[in-house]
Specification:
Residues 38-360 form the Amidohydrolase-related domain. The active site is at residue 256. Belongs to the metallo-dependent hydrolases superfamily. NagA family. One of its GO terms (molecular function) is metal ion binding. InterPro entries: Amidohydro-rel (IPR006680), GlcNAc_6-P_deAcase (IPR003764), Metal-dep_hydrolase_composite (IPR011059), Metal_Hydrolase (IPR032466). The protein is α/β, with parallel strands linked by helices. It has a single domain (42-329), classed as TIM Barrel (Alpha-Beta Barrel), CATH 3.20.20.140. Helix content is 28%, strand content 28%. It has a seven-stranded mixed beta sheet, with no helix packed on it. Strands 5-8-9-10-11-12 form a six-stranded parallel beta sheet, sandwiched between helices. Strands 15-16-17 form a three-stranded antiparallel beta sheet, with no helix packed on it. Helix 3 links the parallel strand 9 and strand 10. Helix 1 crosses helix 2, helix 2 runs parallel beside helix 3 (138-147) and helix 5 (185-194) crosses helix 6. It is globular.
Length: 361
C-alpha cells in the first residue's frame, strides 16, 4: 500500500488529505496539515497522434513510445489517434493500438482505445491530414471496428452517406465527432440528431461562426454538449476558448500532439506526411499547422494562465473527458477508482505520476 499527502482535488473540491492506494484508491484520509503540493487525477487525452518520436500509425511500437512519453507529463490514459490513410493502413494502425490496449507496459499511459480521425473527412478540409480522404463506407467502418477498439470517430457530416454512418457508429457505442468539414449549420444539426455527440478540435478545420452562416462552430455553440479544444496558444485564440467554455457545457482539452512532441527541431512523421518542428510549433512545408507538441501538463498551465482556476483546468483535462467517454473508474480521486494520479509542485510542474498505482519513472 502507498500514500500521497497534499492538497487533493476530490470530487467535492480541494481537501488536505492523504490518498491511500495500491492499484486502486483505497481511501482518502483527512489531514490538518499536508505538504505544499497538489494531488490531481491523471489527465486523459482523447486526441493524441504521437509523442517522443512515436506515431500511432506506426503500429504497437509507435503507440508504446507515445504512451510512455505522455505518461511522464501527467497523461495517465489516452486514445491513440489515427490520421487519414488508405483503409488498409488504418486497419494496421488499429491492430497495433489494440495490441497495446490489451497488454499495457510499465511506464505507459493506459490506451483506452482509438480515435479514428478520418478517413471519412472532406477533401477541402484536410488541414494537415494526409491526402487520403474516403467517402463514408459502412463496410470499411465495420472492418475498422473489427480491427481495433474504436471509441471515437471524426467525420464530415455533409458527405454522402455520412448520416447513415453516424447512425451505424452511434448504435455501436462509438462517440461520433464532427470535424474536418465544410458543413453548414443545417447539416451539422442533422448529424447531431442522427447521433453525433461532439466536435473535433473546435474552430480548426471547420467553418467559423458568421451572422448569416453560423457553420459548424455555430452548431456547436447552439446545439453542442461536448467539444474538444487544443489549448496550446496557437490553434485557438484565448477569447475563442473563453467563448467556447461559456457556450458549450462539456468543453475538454486535448493535445493533438504528434511525434515531434518532446523532440528537438526537425522532421517527423504524421502518418504518410512529414511535418517539421520549428520552435514550439509543428507545420507542413507550406506553413499549415500540423498538430502540436503540447503535453497535458502544459495544457493545464495554459488554462490557468487563461484565468481558469486550477480545479476547473484539471476538471477539463481529466473528469470531463472521462465522462465524455463513459469511463467511470478514471478521472477522479475517490475510493474505488484506478490510482491514476499526478503530483504537482506549487509552480504546477509535474513531480510524480502514477498509472494504476505504479509510479512512472
Amino acid at each position: 500500500m502507498q500514500a500521497l499527502a497534499g492538497r487533493v482535488l476530490t470530487a467535492r473540491g480541494w481537501a488536505l488529505a492523504r490518498v491511500v492506494f495500491d492499484a486502486r484508491i483505497q481511501a482518502l484520509e483527512p489531514l490538518s496539515e499536508a505538504p505544499r503540493r497538489y494531488v490531481l487525477p491523471g489527465f486523459i487525452d482523447l486526441h493524441v497522434h504521437g509523442g517522443g518520436g512515436g506515431d500511432a500509425m506506426e503500429g504497437a511500437a509507435g503507440v508504446r513510445r507515445l504512451a510512455r512519453f505522455h505518461a511522464r507529463h501527467g497523461t495517465t490514459a489516452l486514445l491513440a489517434t489515427t490520421v487519414t490513410a488508405p483503409p488498409a493502413a488504418v486497419v494496421r494502425a488499429l491492430e497495433g493500438i489494440r495490441a497495446v490496449a490489451r497488454r499495457p507496459g510499465a511506464g505507459e499511459a493506459r490506451v483506452l482505445g482509438a480515435h479514428l480521425e478520418g478517413p471519412f473527412i472532406h477533401p477541402e478540409r484536410l488541414g494537415a491530414q494526409p491526402p487520403y480522404p474516403h467517402p463514408p463506407d459502412l463496410d470499411w467502418a465495420r472492418r475498422f471496428l473489427e480491427a481495433g477498439p474504436v471509441r471515437v470517430v471524426t467525420l464530415a457530416p455533409e458527405l454522402g452517406g455520412a448520416l447513415e454512418l453516424v447512425r451505424f457508429l452511434a448504435g455501436r457505442g462509438v462517440r461520433v465527432q464532427l470535424g474536418h468539414s465544410t458543413a453548414g449549420f443545417v447539416e451539422a444539426r442533422a448529424a447531431l440528431e442522427a447521433g453525433a455527440v461532439g466536435f473535433t478540435h473546435l474552430f480548426n478545420a471547420m467553418g467559423g461562426l458568421m451572422a448569416r452562416a453560423p457553420g459548424l462552430v455555430g452548431a456547436a455553440f447552439a446545439r453542442g454538449r461536448w467539444a474538444e479544444v487544443i489549448p496550446d496558444g496557437r490553434h485557438v485564440h484565448p477569447g475563442a476558448l473563453l467563448a467556447a467554455f461559456r457556450a458549450i457545457p462539456g468543453v475538454y482539452g486535448v493535445t493533438d500532439a504528434v511525434a515531434a512532441a518532446g523532440m528537438p527541431e526537425g522532421r517527423y512523421p504524421l502518418g504518410a506526411r512529414t511535418v517539421v518542428r520549428r520552435g514550439d510549433g509543428v507545420y507542413l512545408e507550406d506553413g499549415t499547422l500540423a498538430g502540436s507538441v503540447l503535453t497535458m501538463a502544459e495544457a493545464l498551465r495554459n488554462l490557468v494562465r487563461l484565468g481558469l482556476s486550477l480545479a476547473e483546468a484539471a476538471w477539463r483535462l481529466s473528469a470531463l473527458p472521462a465522462a465524455y467517454l463513459g469511463v467511470r473508474d478514471r478521472g477522479r480521486v475517490r475510493a474505488g477508482v484506478w490510482a491514476d494520479l499526478v503530483v504537482l509542485d506549487e509552480a504546477l510542474r509535474v513531480r510524480e505520476v502514477y498509472v494504476e498505482g505504479r509510479r512512472v519513472r
